């Protein structure tokens, strides 16, 4: 037995192996070719009497002239008209018993001249059996006979597909290339894959992507909820029409006689709260929490230009806003030294109290006081 090797991986394979045992490469159906019966060579065509003429020679039977195959077609038309009258007249050139269509010079029956004897009779018989020229037969190449290799008995596990025994250690069947020894190891992995990806993978990927988007939205909402709420309330403040709101209580840390703290919230422009010094404060309380959109401050003793500069005017106010939950918001309000309302937007919700403290004043001299004409509050309806 001749040793072979796999052309794919170079592993040694047996003479009767159809597939490589290492990589499963196809090696050829050697076993089937060796088991096929040898082809019987074809016999060349035989002649009229069972003998085959030599290929390519075109030899005629004995007794026929050498020029008969080449001259028969050309001489037949020319000799037919001339020979007919001769046969009828019984001339010397007639061919007795000649068969129609026979080549010139070939007798078709009885001897043509006296004294031929038995040799002439044999020649006439062979001439009568002559069927004309025969084309040479095409030679058939003999099929080579395959060499018979004895299969070596193999001891090993059978193939689960075809039952062929295979030597231990092979990965593929030597007859049908079925993978060997992988069923036990591939079972758990296949079950795990089936459990993980049952159905369409793209559907699971879409569900996972949707879940991630939802989680991202929830985290973003939790992180940016205060900012988002502020933006929403700010939008509502800009679209709402402010409504005036009067405080239910007004108190002050100090006041000038004749100019009480209540005068700053009575709605009259010719009355004011007189603060004896910088640092005095005034508190405004409200009956129910509300959203404070803005507050308007009128500085000076009067809204008229003549009485505006009669007393000192507040230049900076500290505003502390207290909400219903106890929280506070601090604002600084800078006032211009001119008569008329000066508005400050706040946008604070659930307001229950507002405190104003004078931090700076303009035109304060000895014996004078700070005049705060009016404070107005506007809420969101």
Could you explain how this protein is built, in words?
Strands 3, 4, 5, 6, 7, 8, 9 and 10 form an eight-stranded antiparallel sheet that branches. Strands 1-2 form a two-stranded antiparallel sheet. Helices cover 26% and strands 22% of the residues. The longest helix has 39 residues, at 201-239. The chain is rod-shaped. The chain contains six helices and ten strands; from the N terminus they run ββαααααββββαββββ. It has 381 residues and is an alpha+beta fold. A hairpin with a 6-residue loop joins strand 1 (4-5) and strand 2. It has helices at residues 30-35, 68-89, 117-129, 183-196, 201-239, 305-308, and strands at residues 4-5, 12-13, 243-245, 249-252, 273-275, 281-299, 313-323, 328-334, 341-362, 370-379.
Short note summarizing the structure:
This protein has 381 residues and is of the alpha+beta class.
Describe this protein with a few key phrases.
381 residues; alpha+beta; 8-stranded antiparallel beta sheet; rod-shaped
SSE blueprint and pairings:
Elements lengths: L3 E2 L6 E2 L16 H6 L32 H22 L27 H13 L53 H14 L4 H39 L3 E3 L3 E4 L20 E3 L5 E19 L5 H4 L4 E11 L4 E7 L6 E22 L7 E10 L2
Antiparallel strand pairs: 1-2, 3-10, 4-6, 5-10, 6-9, 6-10, 7-8, 7-9
